[in-house]
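sorry for the late reply, my laptop died twice this morning and i had to redo everyting from scratch. anyway the thing you sent over, i finally got around to it. pasting the sequence first so we're on the same page, its 773 residues, then the predicted structure underneath. double check i copied it right bc i was rushing
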Amino acid sequence: MTRHFFAAALIAWLLFAAGPLSVGDAHATEGVISPRGHFATLDDALAVAADGETIDVYGGLHEGPIAITSSVTLRGHDWPVIDGAGTGSVVTISAPSVSMSGFVIRGSGIQLFAEDAAIQVNAPLAVIEGNRISDSLFGIYLRESHDSIVRNNKVVGKDLDPARRGDAIRLWSSHRVTVDGNSVRGARDLLLSYSNSVVLTGNTVTDGRYAFHFMYCDDALVAGNHLTKNSVGVFLMYSRRLHLRDNVIGENRGPSGYAIGLKDVDEAVIHRNLFADNRVGAYIDNSPSEIGSTVRFESNVFIFNDFGLRLMPSVRNNEYLGNSFIDNNEQVNISGGGALGANLWAVNGRGNYWSDYAGYDADGDGVGDIPYRSEKLFENLVSRNPELRILSYSPSSQAIDFAARVVPFTRPEPKLIDLAPLISPGALPGMRLQQDGSLAPVVFSSVGLLGIAVSLGLLARRLPGGRPRSLRSKAPRGADPLVHVAGLSKQFGANHALRDVSFQVRRGEGLALWGANGAGKTTAIRCLLGLIHFEGTVIIGGHDVRSEGRKARRLVGFVPQEMGFAADTPVEDTIRFFAGLRGSGHADADRLLQRMGLAVHRRKQVRQLSGGLRQRLAIAVSLLGDPPVLVMDEPTANLDAAGRQDVLRVLESLKRGGKTFILASHRPAEIGVLADRVVVLEAGRINDELTVEDFQERLTGASDMHLTLPPASVDQALSTLECAGYRARRNGNGVIVQIRQNAKAAPVTTLVAAGLKVIDFDVLGINEEAGDV
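ok and here's the structure:
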C-alpha cells in the first residue's frame, strides 16, 4: 500500500527555538508554540528531538520500527498509525520519562524468542496511555521500567493459535507500575514477573489464557477488574501481601478453569470479589506456605461454579468469613480426596452463607443456630469416583443424600464445619456498570438436570435500548405458542434477577435471549428447565413447568456450553446411558450417532473427541426422545472457529427440520443463523424485542477509513461525502470518513461517481463510538 508522508525535514538548526515538534499536517492548535517542523518521517523528528520536547503527530501512516532515545512526549491526533510490517518490535523506548498517547500501533513480528512487541519499554517513568494496539505478538512490554503507567490502552492479540500468542501486557522487574483501565482481547496473558507494588485497576480482559498471571510479585493491588471468558482469571504464584478486591471474574472454563488460583502465596487478602460461572471459583495449593502466614477470603460471592472452592488437602491457615456460596455444583471440593486441616470457616462469630444450609435462625441475629456441615454422601463418593459426576442432579444422587440423612451412620466425615453460618447472602460485589455497559447486577451459570449437565452462561455486550416494537415472526399466523412465558419473576435476596418477563415462541421458531452480564438470561433458562422456584407462568407444550415439570421437560432438549461427560467412557456407551435416563432405546441412540456423524467414532473414549465432536455428542444427547424444543446456552462458546462452524451447520439443519430454538448466545453471527427474534434483557426486564435483521443492524460497528486523494480535490471530496450523508474530516492530503463495517466500498464508489480520483485507502479500525478497537 502506498505510504504518504509530509514534506521533507527542515534543516536541524531551525529547530533550536523552543516549542513542540509537529509531524504530519500542520494543525495550529492551542499549546503548540512555533510549530516549525514538517518532517518526512517520524524517525527524522525523533532524531533531532531534545529531552523534554513534545512531538505532535497528526494522522497518517508511519513506518516502523521506531526507536525513541530521548525523553520526549509523543501525542497522536486523529489516530496516526505506526505499522511494523510484520517484522520485530514496532516501537522501542530506551529513554526515561517518555510519554506516548493516541496512536494506532500494529504489525509486529511473530518471533516468540525475540519477544516482538508493539511497544517495548526499557526505561523507567514511561507513560503509555490511550493507544490502540492490534496485530502484534506482545502488546506492551516493560523491562526494568519502574514507576511507569500503562493506562486506557486497547490491545487485541495477533490472530494466531492461542499457544503462539504473546502477552497483551508484560512486566518484568518493573516496580511500582500502574496498569489501569486497559481493554485486552484475544491475547495470551497479562504477565507480571519479579515486579513489586504493582497496581492493576479497572482493566477488562477477555478471550485469553491467564487474564492476570503473577510470578514473584509482592504487595500488589488488584481492584475493580473484569476478567471473563478466559481459561484462567487470576493465577498468583510465589508472592506475598497481594490484595484482590471488587473484581468480577467469570466464565473461565479452560482446562483448569480457575477464577483465581493461589500457589505458594502468603498474606493474601481476597475481598469483595464475584466468582461466577467458572469451573473452579478459587483453587488453593500450599497457600499460605510460610509459618505464621494466612490467606483471607472475605465477603466474596461464589455463584454457580462447578466447584466454589477447590483446596489441596494440605492447605492450612485459610480464613473464610462473610462469603456467599450460592448454588455451586459442589460448594467446597478437596482435590484428590482426604481431609482439610486447620482452616477457619467462621471468624469472630461470623461465618459464611451457604445456599444449601438447612438450619434456622430463631433469635433473628442473622446467624444460623446450628452449624453448617458439608457432609453430602454423593459428593464424597464422587471425590473418590469422578466418573459418578455424570449422575449429578439425577434422582440417584438425590436418593443417596436422602438416605444419608435418614440413616446417620452412612454419613461421611464432614469436609468442613461452619460454626456461624449466615442466613442471608451478602451483596454481589463489583456491580458497577463499565463505560461500555458490559455488566449488570447478577450473573449465573452451571447446574445439572437429570444427568444432562446444564452449563449456563455469562457476560454479553449491552445492546442499545429502544421501545418494544411489533415483530414479524416466521411462524404461521394464528399458531398456538409451543412455549408460553408470562409474568416471569425471580428474586435472590434483595436482587431481582427477573421482573415480569413475558414472551412466546411458536413451533419452528428461534428465539434468542441477549443482554449484558446478569441481565437475566441464565435465570430465565433455569426457570424454563424447572430448576429453580419462580413467580409467573412457564408452559411448554401445554404443560405447566411448576405443576407438570416431568411432562414439560420431556419436550425439551438442552445443549450446554460444555457437557459433563465421563472422559474415559466410549461414545456409544455414553449416549446409551443417557438414552436409558430419557426412556429412549439403543436404536434411538444409534440413530442419533449416525445423524450427528459420530458413528465412526462410537468406540472412541469421549476424551479422544475434538471439541466440535464432543458438542455434536451433546446435541445428540439433547435429541434423545425427539423433543420439539431445544434450549441452548452458548452452544459454541468453547469451540475453535472450525468446531464452531461445524456445530452451527448441525444446528441450522435441525432448525430447518422444524425444531424450536431458545438460546442465549454472545455471538451475533450465531444468533443470525439460529434465531428469528431477539428478546433483549436488561436488569431482569425486557428492554426490547427485535427481528433478527434489526438486531444485526444495531450491532454493525462503525470504522474510520482514510482516503488518500490528489491535494487539489480534498475540499471537493469533503463536500461530496457530506452531501451523501457521510461524516468526514480533512486529514493531510486526504479525508477520514466514518463507514459501516459492511459498507467499506460505498464512500469510494461515491467519490469515483463524482469524477474524483482515489489514490489509496486504509481502514483504521472501529470508531471510538462503536466501543471497540
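The first helix runs from residue 42 to 48.
thats about all i looked at so far, will dig more tmrw
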